[in-house]
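The aim of this short unit is practical: by the end, you should be able to scan a pair of folded records and say something sensible about each. We start with the first protein, listed as its amino acid sequence and then its structure tokens.
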Amino acid sequence: MTTARTLFAEGMRDHLAPALRAMGFTGWRHTFALPDEHHWALLGIELGSADDRLVRYTVNLGLTRKADWTAGRGRRALRPNPNTVTGLEAWRSRIGPLLPVGGDVWWQIAPGPRWAVAVQDTVAAVRHYALPELLRRLEGGSAGAECYLAPDELVDVNAALRLADVAPIRRTELAGGALRLYGDWSSSDAVAREVLRGAATGFLSVGDTRFGTVRCRDRAGRDLWAFGR
């Protein structure tokens, strides 16, 4: 029977790492980063225990200003390790407190037909909770972004998007004269582009002088489409 250690290595290499890269992370093995000019925005896989029968692991997140890390870096690695406290972090957290359940969360991999469920759950937790939190802190810290509408204020527009079979808007922000919409969209989705064009027209018709452009971004913060008045 394949050991838990082997299944863990396979899950990280063949499932988790490709999923993280699709979300915009770069990296390998147990350490990944979101590209950013001013910060190390890191995600790390921390092992709690590991043997042939069971592997326990969790996810750590960290945000460190590159200027703080570079200063006196003669005795430091190229970038911080998200699984090690350095004292230079602007923010650091395990993924558990970001999830609806709260508290510490450890996934377990054991030999058996359902061993990959833990990895799939980890991918979902990063996509829906860890990545948005990292992006929120990056945007708020470096670009002066502010929240535009609360989730309950997006109910009507998201209902219309779902009717058109388009993923909902996850969050909205104002920055640099633009309204940013974030969602699980891709640049190749022509239907999402046209439906979101209509949503952008609705936002622009309000006449809010704080923005003249609506920018649609994916969950990794990459620009997809821009619509103006």
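Turning to the second protein, read its sequence before its tokens, just as you did above.
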Amino acid sequence: MTRSPFPAQHPDQPADQPAGRPAQRPSRAQRRRARADRWRRETVELAAVFIAVATADLIANVVVHGHDGPVLLAASAVALLGTAVFHSWWAHRHPEGPPGPDPLAGPEPAAVGPAGPLPEQTRLWRLRATVSDAPGSLAAVSTALAELRISIISLQTHPLPDATVDEFLLRAPRSLPRPALTEAVALAGGREIWTEPADAHDLVDVPTHVLALATRTALDAAELPVALRQLFGQVTIRQFPARSEDQRPAPNLAGPVMLLPAPGGELIELSRPHLPFTPTEFARAKALVELDTVLGPRVPKVEDHLRLPGGGPHGEELTVRRARSDDRAAALAMHRRCSPATLRRRYHGPVADADRYLGHLLDPRHGQTLTVETADGRLVALAHLMWDGDSAELAVLVEDAWQRRGLGLDLLRRMAALAAEAGVATVYAVTQAGNTALISAMRRLELPLDYQVTDGTLVITAHLAGAAEQLPSPWPSVPGGR
């Protein structure tokens, strides 16, 4: 039987009593005192009626049979008028206020709104603690949280050989400090306690969250690092070069480090020094990587059309789309049309090495690459967003004939928006201190920037916190932005 989330109204409950809050039944002493007060009130009212009737009869006899009847009537009228005037003056001078508290009623109840007591302002927390694998361990932690008026919204358990890792999503009073929360859990038997502020995105249940990440990974190979980061929070992800089959290590879990073989012989390393991984988390990560291996390289078909304000060399419309592995030949041809200075500014090394970078840059598993294509299929610009731990590197290459037309700025905005959607906190660009074009384009992103110069190499870091709303969609012509 399905239970309604709204409690039914009790038949004897007053209409103004909020649903789900039944009226309190008076005690026996209160009922006895109420009956005595009712009888006393009725006796006084009955005595007042008899006195009024006797007074009226006396006045009638005096008026009818006495010789001073008219004088008595006039005096009564004046007395009534004076009484009315005095009552009006007294009421104006001493206005009635709200009744004071009843000393027998106890403390006043809390403020009540249409749906019950008005709640205190709260905030969400994620809490993880290791407890002994014994009956009552979880109950002790739950009791400690309840004493602090903390609600448990969701709970995950990660079994270990000799203990259990409990991961909570909590709703706590905003006035509760983090040290008090940690101390209460520690006193209840928790150890290796970790807390982190949560938000509305954490309200999604874990199976739904994992399925959504698997769907994103299935649609786009570049989403695997993003999915792993969103699954485990603050985690550093590194990829190491491919190895031969006999040298490839097996999947391995060692506390805060997780090793997973990636497609193509590469190795993915996940590290989280502040919080060891559990076997449950290892199984989830392994399943995502195996799904990526089975599906192979894949790039979603998304594109956008633009025409630069000044027009291209031939005034043609351009197409911006995700790069594919079969774009290598067109990208090499674009390298041939670029000057050595342009290639040197982009790849920060010998011009002869530029071509060998393309295989890595066009692989969707290392990041996202955008291409700008003309109507005849020539590539005139490439933009790369390469995942790097908690951040991502931006890089743009524009063919000489198409430079100084705003094409690089458009690509930077799209890449920054893609990074913000992926939940990356910062993006950075590495260039030479004299590359004024890239420096100017980064400034025009209107994001907080940090600059670091070392031996003539300039690193510009843009902070994306809260920038997802102000950045334009990377694919404005595609519903949903993807």
